[in-house]
Design brief:
The chain is of the alpha/beta class. About 35% of the residues lie in helices and about 25% in strands. Bound molecules: cytidine-5'-monophosphate.
Length: about 400
């Protein structure tokens, strides 16, 4: 299932240089499974032609409220009634000012005002010069538009087409897409603070070498994203991995198990849910060489002494807040066989209410997985699916147990 399948999006463009990015956004929405109806202001049509958007959306583009193609001549009604959302990207300073006052002198603003508010949400992706964005008038308008029920996305930061640098760029199309996908997810964890560990740890041998494992961090990152989509505040403590940070998630990068434990200790007091997906190294070197261990062709092998790493999950699960139910702990178990028996035993050993088992070698580094949820009542399979889809199902299960 694509993230936006069965969704019909009215994509509105108001005038601004970011219109060129709206073409990419249109394409991304369609690739994500949505159908897209484009509506442009005349100013937008100065920046990019309706022909481009028509070709990308595979539908005629509307610019004018006087467009005679609609038999009843009411494009603003006809095009908005079956929309799952109206997304205005870019939303210019002028267009937002107009929306604020309920003005309707072009088709797009007319449609925004005429939409059935209770079932057609309005999402705005602002785009403008940094001075325009910072201006009290724009900030006042954004605050009021939010109060009026519009969902105003963040702006990007960086170099602007005008040559200046600052806040006000439109988000990149893939960022808007991620925010929109999140917007449609049920807000089952609203008000919760979820702390997630993900990825491997790296235990140093000397300044250039170390011991690590093949965990990609994908499952943990998917859980962080799904929890954020569900409305939670999310802190993600990540070992060394090459994964993009999910939008809206606070990421804390760590290297060793001891670093990970320190970061978890720092953030766990604010958390209401702790999900430990990290593949924490069981052992570390008892002492790390301060200089690179040289070979010198002597044939002599280095001597290494190991010591056990702390079990982060087990110690958090023993804390008072976990014991009295203020903090809900979820552990993971990567096994190669006898998943149910091992996961059940691990749940007891770690002292957590919910343990999620998966077959490690079948999922390491891949985008898919299958999960087995084990709790005091028994077990439940989440069949083979993408890690993001499984993460959303797991988040729903956690939310059910928290409520
Ligand atoms: O003991 P094992 O490594 O199989 O347990 C896996 C679970 O415990 C995972 O949830 C993992 O993140 C967590 N864990 C931990 N600290 C460790 C070892 C495992 O938090 N040192």
């Amino acid at each position: 299932m694509s993230d936006l399948s069965n969704k019909h999006i009215v994509l509105g463009l108001s005038g601004g240089i970011a219109c060129y990015k709206a073409a990419e956004l249109c394409r991304s929405l369609i690739k994500a499974g949505a159908s897209v109806q484009v509506v442009m202001t005349e100013a937008a049509a100065q920046f990019i032609t309706p022909v481009t958007l028509q070709a990308l959306s595979n539908r005629p583009v509307y610019v004018s409220q006087w467009d005679g193609r609609e038999p009843n001549n009411m494009a603003h009604i006809n095009l908005s009634r079956n929309a799952d959302a109206i997304v205005v990207a870019p939303a210019s300073a002028d267009f937002m000012a107009k929306l604020l006052h309920g003005r309707t002198d072009d088709l797009l603003s007319l449609m925004c005002l005429a939409r059935p508010m209770e079932r057609v949400p309005l999402v705005l992706a602002p785009a403008m010069n940094r001075e325009m964005w910072q201006h009290p008038a724009t900030q006042r308008n954004v605050t009021q538009l939010r109060a009026d029920g519009a969902h105003v996305l963040d702006v990007g930061q960086g170099e602007q087409a005008c040559g200046e640098t600052g806040d006000g760029r439109m988000l990149e199309p893939e960022e808007i897409l991620e925010d929109l996908v999140a917007f449609f997810q049920p807000k089952a964890l609203q008000g919760q603070h979820v702390l997630v560990t993900a990825g491997p740890t790296f235990e140093a041998i000397d300044p250039v070498r170390g011991i690590t494992n093949l965990s990609s961090g994908k499952m943990g990152f998917a859980i962080a994203r799904a929890a954020r989509e569900a409305g939670a505040e999310v802190t993600l403590v990540a070992g060394p991995v090459h994964q993009a940070t999910p939008r809206g998630v606070r990421r804390v990068d760590v290297r060793s198990a001891l670093d990970m434990q320190a970061a978890v200790t720092q953030y766990v007091d604010q958390a209401t849910v702790f999900v430990a997906t990290a593949a924490v190294a069981d052992w570390r070197l008892a002492s790390v060489a301060t200089q690179k261990i040289k070979k010198y062709g002597s044939g002599q092998l280095p001597q290494m002494q190991f010591t056990e790493n702390p079990d982060i999950l087990a110690s958090v699960a023993k804390s008072e807040r976990a014991q009295n139910g203020a903090l809900f702990c979820v552990g993971f178990a990567a096994e190669s066989h006898d998943l149910l028996a091992h996961a059940t035993a691990k749940r007891a050993r770690k002292g957590v209410p919910l343990l999620v088992g998966n077959i490690g070698p079948a999922t390491f580094g891949l985008d898919d997985n299958a999960l087995l949820l084990v709790d005091a009542q028994g077990s439940q399979e989440l069949p083979h699916a993408s890690k993001l889809s499984l993460a959303r199902q797991l988040v729903a299960e956690i939310a059910r147990r928290r409520s």
